Amino acid sequence: MTFSRRHLVLACAAAGTLIAAPAMAQGGSYPTKPISIVVSYPPGGDTDAIARLFAEKLTQRLKQTVIVENKPGAGGTIGNTFVSRAAPDGYTLLFTPNPFTTAPMVMNLPASASYDVLNGFEPVIKTAVQPLVLVAHPSVGVKNVPELVAQAKGGKSLSYASPGAGSPMHVLGEWLNKSAGVNLQHVAYRGVGPSVNDVVAGHVNTAWVTLGAVSQYTSTGRLVPLAIGDAKRSPLAPQVPTLVEAGYKDVVVGAWNGFFAPKGTPAAVVSTINSHMNEILKQPDVVQKLATFGALPVGGEPSVLGTTNADEYKVMSRVIKDLGIQAN
């Protein structure tokens, strides 16, 4: 089973046609000065690259400079907290992946150093989803999750990599461990890139990663895709089954990203950014660029992001507590 960069582009192009396009809101004279998009991770990663793509497009549409400001550290909570305390005037935005929702749960930070996940921000737009995939080095000798579980139950020592303790990939890996009654050893890395490098090299047996990060390796047989973490198969890799299909009906974790603004940001300003972003997400070059990150554009009203965040908080708070996951 393989999926290629070409398949990612075609799937994303098809998905891009489904994005809702609400009417352009009247944001008054906004913006009258440069806008800062805060990214709570270092430069060079997927989140930073996608944010810079959106900043460029917003600059063109708003006729005002939009810059990306990196504020990494503490699992993303430093930058997220900064935005939660910024002036609610539309000139400071947060672009974040879904660890936004779970980071405070796994970091054990005091309230003074963290943020209110559910009530501390105004959702602006859910920009994209990035399905998570479990891949294995060919030397493991498995083609699907049942075969992997059988090996683990048979006494073979196996490991899985994630881009960090407390990440959605870590949660997914431990959730599968518990549901399957196995104990694949977790190996935490600092980012997706290092985890992919080590599973390709065979230093770890398997890894939970985003699709785009491994497409070049699965298409050439250097990695074997075993399962998708979403509830349904992904159009980016339709031949790869889900964990639900493998019998783990409750084990569902995906990745998403989106824009938030500080609580109290005027509704007209939120609507203006939302409307521009919905148009940006339909542009063919944006759809194709997102495809290189294994991402499908989403869009829609701000409430789409708000509902996603609230639903994930409800589910993940229970799962993280049950599994005892911490970002050590």
How would you describe what is shown here?
There is one protein chain. By secondary structure, the protein is an alpha/beta fold. The chain has two domains: 15-129 and 257-323, 3-Layer(aba) Sandwich (D-Maltodextrin-Binding Protein, domain 2), CATH 3.40.190; 132-228, 3-Layer(aba) Sandwich (D-Maltodextrin-Binding Protein, domain 2). The chain is 39% helix and 18% strand. It has eleven helices and eleven strands. The chain has helices spanning 5-16, 46-62, 77-84, 99-107, 145-153, 168-180, 192-200, 211-218, 267-280, 284-291, 302-323; strands at residues 35-39, 66-70, 92-97, 121-130, 132-136, 159-162, 185-188, 206-210, 224-228, 255-262, 296-297. The chain has a six-stranded mixed beta sheet, with helices on both faces. The model is unreliable at 20-27 (pLDDT under 50). This is Tripartite tricarboxylate transporter substrate binding protein. InterPro entries: BUG, Bug_dom1, TAT_signal. Residues 1-25 form the signal peptide. Belongs to the UPF0065 (bug) family.
Sequence-ordered SSE layout with sheet pairings:
Layout: H1 5-16, E1 35-39, H2 46-62, E2 66-70, H3 77-84, E3 92-97, H4 99-107, E4 121-130, E5 132-136, H5 145-153, E6 159-162, H6 168-180, E7 185-188, H7 192-200, E8 206-210, H8 211-218, E9 224-228, E10 255-262, H9 267-280, H10 284-291, E11 296-297, H11 302-323
Parallel strand pairs: 1-2, 1-3, 6-7, 6-8
Antiparallel strand pairs: 3-10, 4-10, 4-11, 5-8, 5-9
Q: Kindly report the spatial arrangement of strands forming the biggest sheet.
A: 2-1-3-10-4-11
Percentage of residues in strands: 15-25%
The pLDDT mean sits at: 91
* Biggest sheet layout: 6 strands, mixed
Can you tell me the CATH topology of the largest domain? D-Maltodextrin-Binding Protein, domain 2
**Secondary-structure class:** alpha/beta
Low-confidence stretches: 20-27
- CATH superfamily placement of the largest domain: Bordetella uptake gene, domain 1
The helix fraction, in percent, is: 25-40%
CATH architecture of the largest domain: 3-Layer(aba) Sandwich
Just give the CATH class of the largest domain: Alpha Beta
Radius of gyration: 19 Å
